[in-house]
Design brief:
Elements (H helix, E strand, L loop, with lengths): L1 H91 L14
Amino acid sequence: MIESWTVWLSIFGASTTAAALGAYFALRARARELDRRVVLLERELALSREREAYNQRKLEELAESVLAARRSAEEELRRFKIRIDGLFAILEGERRPTPGAPIGLS
């Protein structure tokens, strides 16, 4: 009776060990796969941050160019308004344009 008990206990111990080893190897493979995925995601995240920083710099450059063009256009319109006002003043005979104003119609 005791001999059969030890046989069953040995079989149970061996099967438990086999199950534990199988679970260990399966989980180790899964952990390695997840680790590779995490590394890839971290790499993608770093690249994404670099692209975002690059796009932000380009957007700032574009905004600066737009603002410079706007300032230039506003200055050009201001000069044009001065010339038009001077032209209307000459045509109406009211007064000569203010000295120093660039009219080009003297």
